[in-house]
């Protein structure tokens, strides 16, 4: 069970406070202050891990975020001289902060050196403020950058995860791939990216909770999930397929909404085709993670883990198959 120390609780509160300040401010300066408060609260949380690589990851994260914040400040004098260049500089700084390709180089190494709860925070909560800023900057000047970054993130996230055997790096490339879909959702409307981000947060949380409870950091460790925990394996299987967007699981619903927006708005079919192709690649390495644990088992492995799974872990199965019950709920309501 995850326990937080008093200073971790304090920094978690200030981290959330920084996000609320950033997304609710009407001034760019106050917004920048919210981002800095969020950054300076997350650094001690990263450094608090007992992992010896956590300090290195915290330093990498600080340097990258400081570079993004410096770029935001550098764009302020440009806004009076060349407004379009200032707008592009701000958007590129935000892409760097969320780890979208081609500015993704820092994201997998940082993810590899931190614990699973910190990884979940980095994949979800830390992206709220920069993405809300992106949604306010949408214009014709920014659209080429969004399209290029979305296509690059889709390809990097899909191809980068194929040759990985470390689960945290696989989840980091998965997060980069989902950023491609989030950028496309941001280009349409604010409601769409909020729905996609909420679904992604729920589904990725169900995956991370299972991996964290079993301390799984390598694909080989999936093999020691013994034969007596079939329900846990099934939960992980459904959670990963949902993260890949396989119908009729929960992760498919927001992707279907994005595809509908592409079709209704007559946007680039090439852009949509690349997103769908990358989704198939992510599904491939998700299946590789789960099928190995289903297929291989030895008597020695069966005796390694003998425990009862917490109920909240098994409830992740219900969360991911919840779309199957939507028609029944509509019948009951109406």
From TrEMBL:
Supply one GO CC term from the record.
Answer: mitochondrial inner membrane
Q: Which GO terms describe its molecular function?
A: NADH dehydrogenase (ubiquinone) activity
GO biological process terms, semicolon-separated: mitochondrial electron transport, NADH to ubiquinone
| Residues annotated as domain NADH:quinone oxidoreductase/Mrp antiporter transmembrane | 25-75, 84-282
- List the catalytic activities from the record: a ubiquinone + NADH + 5 H(+)(in) = a ubiquinol + NAD(+) + 4 H(+)(out)
Q: Which residues form a coiled coil?
A: none
The portions of this protein that span the membrane are 58-75, 81-107, 141-162, 193-211, 232-250, 270-291, 312-333
Where in or outside the cell it occurs: the entry states:
Mitochondrion inner membrane
Q: Which InterPro entries match?
A: Complex_I_Subunit_2, NADH_UbQ_OxRdtase_chain2, ND/Mrp_TM
Function (record text):
Core subunit of the mitochondrial membrane respiratory chain NADH dehydrogenase (Complex I) that is believed to belong to the minimal assembly required for catalysis. Complex I functions in the transfer of electrons from NADH to the respiratory chain. The immediate electron acceptor for the enzyme is believed to be ubiquinone. Core subunit of the mitochondrial membrane respiratory chain NADH dehydrogenase (Complex I) which catalyzes electron transfer from NADH through the respiratory chain, using ubiquinone as an electron acceptor. Essential for the catalytic activity and assembly of complex I.
The record's listing under PANTHER family reads: NADH-UBIQUINONE OXIDOREDUCTASE CHAIN 2
Family per UniProt? Answer: Belongs to the complex I subunit 2 family.
What name appears for this protein in its UniProt entry? NADH-ubiquinone oxidoreductase chain 2
- Tell me what organism the protein belongs to: Typhlatya monae
């Amino acid at each position: 069970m995850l326990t937080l120390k008093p200073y971790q609780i304090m920094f978690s509160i200030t981290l959330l406070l920084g996000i609320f300040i950033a997304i609710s401010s009407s001034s760019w300066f106050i917004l920048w202050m919210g981002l800095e408060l969020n950054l300076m609260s997350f650094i001690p949380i990263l450094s608090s891990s007992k992992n010896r690589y956590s300090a290195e990851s915290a330093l990498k994260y600080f340097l990258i975020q400081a570079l993004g914040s410096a770029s935001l400040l550098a764009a302020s004098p440009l806004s009076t001289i060349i407004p379009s260049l200032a707008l592009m500089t701000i958007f590129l700084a935000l892409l760097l902060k969320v780890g979208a390709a081609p500015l993704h180089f820092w994201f997998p190494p940082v993810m590899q050196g931190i614990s699973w709860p910190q990884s979940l925070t980095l994949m979800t909560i830390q992206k709220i403020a920069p993405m809300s800023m992106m949604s306010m900057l949408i214009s014709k000047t920014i659209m080429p950058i969004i399209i290029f970054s979305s296509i690059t993130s889709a390809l990097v996230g899909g191809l980068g995860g194929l040759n990985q055997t470390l689960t945290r790096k696989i989840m980091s490339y998965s997060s980069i791939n989902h950023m491609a879909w989030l950028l496309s959702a941001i280009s349409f409307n604010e409601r769409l990216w909020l729905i996609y981000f909420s679904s992604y947060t729920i589904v990725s949380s169900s995956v991370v909770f299972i991996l964290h409870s079993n301390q799984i950091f390598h694909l080989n460790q999936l093999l020691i999930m013994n034969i007596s925990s079939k329900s846990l394996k099934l939960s992980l299987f459904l959670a990963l397929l949902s993260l890949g967007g396989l119908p009729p699981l929960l992760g498919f619903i927001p992707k279907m909404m994005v595809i509908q927006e592409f079709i209704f708005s007559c946007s680039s079919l090439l852009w949509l085709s690349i997103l769908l192709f990358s989704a198939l690649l992510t599904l491939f390495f998700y299946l590789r993670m789960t099928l190995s644990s289903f297929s291989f088992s030895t008597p020695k492995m069966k005796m390694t883990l003998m425990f009862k799974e917490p109920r909240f872990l098994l409830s992740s199965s219900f969360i991911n198959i919840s779309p199957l019950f939507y028609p029944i709920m509509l019948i009951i309501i109406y």
